[in-house]
Amino acid sequence: MGALQSIPGQQEYADLAERTGFSLEQIGVLHKRFKQLSHNEATLRRDHFNGIPDLACNPIRSQIVEAFFDRRNFCQNVDGTVDEIGFEQFLVVMSHFKPPSLHITEEQREIIRREKLRFLFNMHDTDNDGTITLEEYRHVVEELLSLSETLEKDTAKSIADAAMLEVASISMGHMEPDEFYEGITFEHFSKLLNGFEIESRMNIRFLYMDTMNLCK
After folding, report:
1. Hey, which residues does 132 pair with through a beta bridge?
2. What is the pTM of this model?
C-alpha cells in the first residue's frame, strides 16, 4: 500500500488498471518510475529518457523513445507526435510491453497480440504512411548493426536490402528483378509474425530496475 499512497486519484488509476491490465501495485511502482524519470515534473520529455543506462545501450533506442510520444500508441485514430506525455500516456504505452495474463480467453489473447503487433509496426512505420518501406527497415537493421566495428556501411546496407527482399518474397510472393517493392502493410506484417510468440517477448528492461538507478 505504501506505493499507492503517493498516487493521487486512485479511482482514476483503478480505471487505468482496467484499461492497461496493470495491478494497482504495479501502477504504484510505475508511478514512482515516472516521477524519478521526470524529476518530479508532471510530464515526461524525450531528454528524460537519456538517464536510463540499459536503454542507452539498446540499438533501437530511438524507436523505443519515440514510441512514447507517438499519438497512435495512446489515442485511437490520431496520428502525429507530442513533445511531452503525462503519466496516463506513459502507462498506456508501457502496457504494450506487459506480458498477457495467464487467465484470459483466447479471444482476449488475440486482441492483445494484435495490439502489440500494431504497436511494433508503428515503431517501424516512422513516417506513418501505413507501410514499412525498404528505407525504414534498412534504418532499423543499420542501427542493429551499428555496434559492430567490423561492418562497413555498405555491408550493413546490403544486409538490410537482402533482409527486406526476403520479407517481400514471403509476403508478396515471387518478385521479378524489375519489380518494385513498395513496402509491407500491417496485414502482411501480422502474417509474417504468425506463430511468433511476440506477446511475452516485448519488454523494456528498465521497468524492473531499482528506482534509484533511474536517477543515475
Report:
1. 184
2. 0.72
